[in-house]
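Quick one: structure tokens for this chain, please?
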Amino acid sequence: MRRKRWNVETLLSGALALLGFTGCSDINDAPDLYGTPSVDYRVLGTVTDEEGKPLEGIQVVMENPYAWYYYDENGKPIESKRNPETGRMTPDTVYTNKDGKFTSYKTTGTSDSNLVMILQDIDGEANGGEFFSKRFTRDKLDKKQLKKGDGWYDGEFEYSKNVKLERK
């Protein structure tokens, strides 16, 4: 009886070991995902009045609590935009030029899902009159992928929005 029991245990152990090894995948099947997910993006667009005339000096604020860095035209991180008390990046703020166009800094963060774009007329009557503010969440912006991601890097994206502001 003792010998029979040993054989059954041996057979079951062997079968379980074989099943365990067959459940393992090939090491090349998936990348090692260490670290934190990240994405690069930029926001651009044009702001006009109801007649289609470009508006200069409109403040465009891109808020994203998950932004890590903003990069200048040379690809260098802009540390001055980091809040020294919290360590977080302050919202990226740009202004429309004489053609009504704006382009944000390139941003790197853990996510772009909480991106919010806020347009505000902060100069009052100057530059064409007073206009109501507008706010857009990421899903209301046009999205274009510029660079494909790999692993936890989602890639690089460009968000754009052409906006008509209404007079007050």
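The helical segments are 2-22.
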